[in-house]
Design a protein that fits this description.
Strand content: 15-25%
Oligomer: single chain
Order of helices and strands: HEEHHEEEHH
Structural class: alpha+beta
Number of helices: 5
Shape: globular
Number of strands: 5
């Protein structure tokens, strides 16, 4: 799994969140995908933002992580977050801190961040769940106080810019490949 690397032009706080996510991805073995989702369900930060463009264009390689893109993980995390918050209200048991779903072929962890945002992690079946939960708690503890409305807007905008750049790069690569292939075909 790759970690986000494009932080040029971002604020100090946004670069710190990118660094925290990179650290989470690099420190915890078995993570397949990580997403930070706003309280209204929008993807703010992803372990592999380039896959968002691939998924939108229908060319995502699903063998590199969860079935779908980081945007799909964001949707799942948002849905599980909403469901567990509703359940906690119905049961009158206080705020939801963490949700974990263990499946045959992996695990999904969702942890609340102080502003209502959520951290979601999709992990391989062999991951150490306690290590994942510990590192998620570290991320949440460090990120929670800086996720202001302004920073959320900046992160959304930067993710959209990364996705547009990835789409433009893929289009340019496909065009160049077609030209080379066309020339090779004409030479025969």
């Amino acid at each position: 799994m790759t970690a986000p690397s494009t932080t040029f032009g971002l604020s100090h706080e946004a670069r710190n969140l990118h660094w925290l996510l990179t650290n989470l991805v690099e420190e915890v073995p078995g993570l397949l995908s990580v997403a930070v989702v706003s309280s209204d369900g929008l993807l703010l930060l992803s372990s592999d933002p380039g896959r968002n463009a691939e998924a939108r264009e229908g060319r995502a390689d699903f063998s590199r992580g969860p079935r779908g893109s980081a945007a799909d993980l964001a949707t799942i995390v948002s849905g599980i977050g909403s469901l567990t918050i509703g359940a906690a209200k119905l049961m009158d048991v206080g705020a939801v801190k963490q949700t974990m779903v263990a499946m045959d072929e992996g695990s999904l962890f969702v942890m609340s961040i102080s502003d209502g945002s959520l951290l979601g992690v999709h992990a391989a079946p062999e991951c150490d769940m306690s290590v994942v939960a510990y590192h998620m708690a570290l991320f949440v503890g460090r990120a929670g106080h800086v996720l202001t409305p302004e920073l959320r807007s900046e992160l959304r905008a930067s993710l959209e810019t990364e996705t547009e750049t990835d789409t433009q790069t893929a289009t340019a690569t496909a065009t160049a490949t077609a030209r080379v292939t066309g020339r090779a075909g004409n030479a025969r």
